[in-house]
């Protein structure tokens, strides 16, 4: 296997390790990820154009805060992620159609490694919180299409889905 085709988180003995970024330069890095959450017509019927209200409180606002918190905890959840100083994390939730919403998370850092995992974790954490906040109304909620939409910065360059 050529060096270009190797997993970066495996050493020469195929053992997991945290990638050494000691010699890398600090650069501005951004990443945007999304998750689609398929709710139900009954849940979306309670959407007032701005927010869903539940007995647990404002659903979208709570999910946004959970997404931001998840981004800040990424290295605690994903074993080989470096802890990163986030300089920005923005999470939005927008209706896509009569039953689906899109969670989008953008994270920025000035660091030696990328911020894709933080954006993906933010989108996932917000989507899971939507499920938690709405599960009393339906267990049929589906979280789908969690993916990186774009990233900038770093040695591998920019990416756009």
From TrEMBL:
Q: What does this protein do?
A: Catalyzes the conversion of (8S)-3',8-cyclo-7,8-dihydroguanosine 5'-triphosphate to cyclic pyranopterin monophosphate (cPMP).
NCBIfam families associated with the record: moaC, PRK09364.1
Q: Which family does it belong to?
A: Belongs to the MoaC family.
Q: Out of the domains of life, which is the source?
A: Bacteria
Residues recorded as binding substrate, renumbered to this chain, are 80-82, 117-118
Q: What is this protein called?
A: Cyclic pyranopterin monophosphate synthase
Q: Which residues form the active site?
A: 132
Q: Which UniProt keywords apply?
A: Lyase, Molybdenum cofactor biosynthesis
What catalytic reaction does the record list? (8S)-3',8-cyclo-7,8-dihydroguanosine 5'-triphosphate = cyclic pyranopterin phosphate + diphosphate
Matching entries from Pfam families are given as:
MoaC (PF01967)
- PANTHER family xref list: MOLYBDOPTERIN COFACTOR SYNTHESIS PROTEIN A (PTHR22960)
């Amino acid at each position: 296997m050529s060096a270009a085709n190797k997993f970066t988180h495996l050493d020469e003995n195929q053992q997991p390790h945290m990638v050494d970024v000691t010699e890398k330069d600090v650069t501005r890095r951004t990443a945007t990820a999304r998750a689609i959450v398929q709710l139900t017509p009954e849940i979306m019927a309670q959407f007032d154009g701005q927010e869903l209200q539940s007995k647990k409180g404002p659903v979208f606002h709570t999910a946004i805060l959970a997404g931001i918190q998840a981004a800040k905890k990424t290295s605690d959840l994903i074993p080989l992620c470096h802890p990163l100083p986030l300089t920005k994390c923005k999470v939005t939730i927008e209706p896509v159609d009569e039953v689906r919403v899109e969670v989008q998370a953008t994270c920025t850092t000035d660091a030696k490694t990328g911020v894709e995992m933080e954006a993906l974790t933010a989108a996932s954490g917000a989507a899971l919180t939507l499920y938690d906040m709405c599960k009393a109304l339906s267990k049929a909620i589906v979280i789908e299409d969690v993916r990186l939409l774009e990233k900038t910065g770093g040695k591998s360059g920019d990416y756009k889905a």
